[in-house]
Amino acid sequence: MRLPVLLLTTLLAAPVLSAQRSVPSSGQWLIEPGDHSATLQLNVRYGERGHSSNWGRDVPLREFVGLSAADMSGSGAVHFKIVRAAGTLDCEGWFERGKGSGHFTYQPNPDFGAELAKRGINAPTEWEQFEMTMAALGLDLVDELARQKYDRPTAAELARMATHGVDLDYIKELGARGYRLQDPERLVRMRDHGVDEDFVASLDNAGYKNLSAEDLVRVRDHGVDGEFIASLDSAGYKNLDIEALVRLRDHGVNDDYIADMKEMGYAPSNPEELVESRDHGVDPSYIASLKAAGYEGLSLPELRRARDHGVTRAYIQRVKSRLSSNPSLDEVIRLRDRGF
């Protein structure tokens, strides 16, 4: 799955609104072999009104019109175009051994606004159209949104989708998983938080389908994925709700902690017991230290109480040496509270 990246590096401190930004008529390009087959890594640099921006992503070879394999493998001047629905980058430069660099001029597509208008979308600003060009946003994406019955986006929303990596593949993949979210802004939010097709598939396989957009973002932000859910399932904690999954993850109750506690003889049916024990610092090493001091078979509430009152193996040994007896845990706690 492609993961577009759009990096904007602003050299001035004051923010600049899209509507106020002027479209660069030219800039620099740099091409290297791509991370995937049949792609090239394209990096573009351009500046306007004292600002400099960098854009980079893997681009399919088919988008480089007039650039041949012989051009890239040889050594010499090249001239090619990157043609997209919203505009074209006319590129000139030099290639040597698979790497190239040079300059480009930008040419907006004068028919693009009319095509958007046919779909009931307002005309984009020059800057919005440039952003759509750079991110390769096409009319097929607009048509897919309509097919999936999303609210009709504005040109500004389309530009925002483009710059945040919401492309046609992303929309189709989520749609195939049953996520047709109506509001285009939800797609941007999910993309920004790393909710991609692989993540959604891992939740589907774990039995968590048709979650809300907010739930998807929430579990992603908290590190709850299919692997984590599977580890809970194998430990006997199945069919937990989203809140329980997030709470376990946030409090460090993972498969290692569960397995270690089980090995010590603690496998409560309610995972909330493990959350409370983890929060109170009751872990296998603490349990082992109390066992070594002669206190075995304690319940989790008893262990938590001892931990909260600062009862340690060293303290128990000091108490026993001074009393020459084996006090109960309650007696040890009372002595600890009284500063004995």
Could you provide a short overview of the structure?
This protein is of the alpha+beta class.
Describe the protein:
With 340 residues, this protein is an alpha+beta fold. It has helices spanning 69-73, 112-118, 126-134, 139-147, 155-163, 168-176, 184-192, 197-205, 213-221, 226-234, 242-250, 255-263, 272-279, 284-292, 300-308, 313-323, 329-337, and strands spanning 5-7, 26-33, 39-48, 51-60, 64-65, 75-83, 87-96, 99-108. It has an 8-stranded antiparallel sheet with strand order 1-4-3-2-8-7-6-5. The radius of gyration is 30 Å and the shape is elongated. The model is unreliable at 1-19 (pLDDT under 50).
Oligomeric category = single chain
Strand content: 15-25%
What form results from the Cα inertia axes? elongated
Largest sheet: 8 strands, antiparallel
Biggest sheet: strands side by side, in what order? 1-4-3-2-8-7-6-5
Q: Helix count, per DSSP? A: 17
How large is the radius of gyration?
30 Å
What is the straight-line distance between the termini? 64 Å
Number of strands: 8
Range of helix content: 40-55%
Helix-strand makeup class: alpha+beta
